[in-house]
Design brief:
Length: 335
């Protein structure tokens, strides 16, 4: 397959019918690393909203087990789509995610924003720093996967197109971005996690490079000063040189998909491993369409525990079935 072979195929596909296949090609073949970079920036954007970061700051999840929380968030989304969102595996993952969120009374608008960051963040990163921009079919597929996830989570008024997600994302940030000490504490904890991925002498450089790709409204809300113009210039040029190099490489073969490589689970994971430990003791509830038909897990039912009035504790996308089988750690990516 030529470097642009999948792109040519996707341009002939109907996103309304083939959105999950296109999404897999984006995340596992065409832009696996860039998609994760865009998701990482999306995490940081959530902390620009004080009512989200205050909850995360109180739970101390990033201080106590930040790498696990980061990995679990990525893996839940991966597991929800891996066999299709309407597969039993995908639906079990959605039920588990809802079980985690069920501990809190979360405003629908907060759910919508966090979901929108997972659609808009990767698209903007890839268009800016990927080896090519996303085509129209890829862009709408990201939105349709996000819409399906939102429906399974029971979120109301989920956008149906990328343009609607982007408008919601930008309007929400204009209205809610504001500095709060909790924003900076949670963002600093997340940056420490990201810096730990590199050798000790490079960690300070890694943090500065991460800040160099963030926009000024977000930096202000997080309590960080913009990096000097020369630092931003060096980082941006380095990322574009990387994109030019990747453009010259052959397409990733179909037999070598690039899945997540979580540091928390070097020997693989199961769905039950994902999420906070207390989630396993909470009852599962059926998804919305399961409630309508009476289907769903036997143990599903409403919890009588009172729910806290708080924003999202986890980022949208997925989690675990009753007794899942172990998942092998994915293969390493070529540059």
């Amino acid at each position: 397959m030529g470097r642009y072979g999948r792109l040519a195929r996707m341009r002939q596909m109907d996103p309304q019918r083939d959105f999950e296949q296109i999404y897999r090609w984006i995340t596992q073949y065409e832009f696996p690393r860039d998609y994760l970079h865009g998701t990482s920036v999306a995490f940081l954007r959530d902390y620009g909203v004080p009512r989200i970061s205050r909850l995360l700051d109180r739970t101390q999840e990033f201080e106590r087990a930040g790498q696990k929380r980061y990995d679990d968030t990525v893996l839940i989304a991966y597991e929800m789509v891996r066999h299709g969102t309407d597969s039993e595996h995908g639906r079990a993952a959605a039920r588990h995610l809802n079980r985690i969120h069920g501990r809190y009374r979360i405003a629908n608008e907060d759910f919508l924003y966090v979901l929108a960051t997972t659609v808009v963040g990767p698209k903007r990163w890839i268009d800016r720093f990927g080896w090519r921009p996303l085509c129209a079919q890829e862009t709408e597929s990201l939105a349709l996967v996000g819409r399906r996830m939102g429906e399974m989570m029971g979120i109301a008024q989920v956008p149906s197109t990328y343009a609607e997600f982007e408008r919601l994302h930008d309007d929400y940030e204009r209205e809610t971005f504001a500095y709060d000490p909790a924003n900076r504490r949670v963002a600093a904890a997340t940056l420490r996690i990201m810096a730990a991925w590199y050798p000790a002498p490079l960690r300070r450089i890694a943090v500065r490079a991460s800040l160099a790709v963030l926009d000024e409204p977000l930096l202000t809300a997080l309590g960080f000063r913009p990096q000097p113009a020369w630092v931003r210039g060096v980082v941006h040029r380095a990322l574009r040189l990387r994109a030019a190099y990747i453009r010259l490489l052959p397409a990733r073969p179909e037999r070598f998909p690039r899945g997540p490589e979580p540091r928390t689970y070097p020997f693989g994971w199961t769905l039950d491993d994902l999420g906070p430990h207390w989630a396993q003791s909470r009852p599962l509830e059926p998804l919305g369409d399961e409630k309508a038909t009476g289907a769903g897990p036997a143990e599903a039912g409403r919890s009588d525990e009172p729910r806290e009035q708080e924003p999202p504790d986890e980022k949208p996308p997925d989690t675990a079935p009753p007794r899942p089988s172990p998942v092998r750690a994915p293969r390493k990516e070529t540059p």
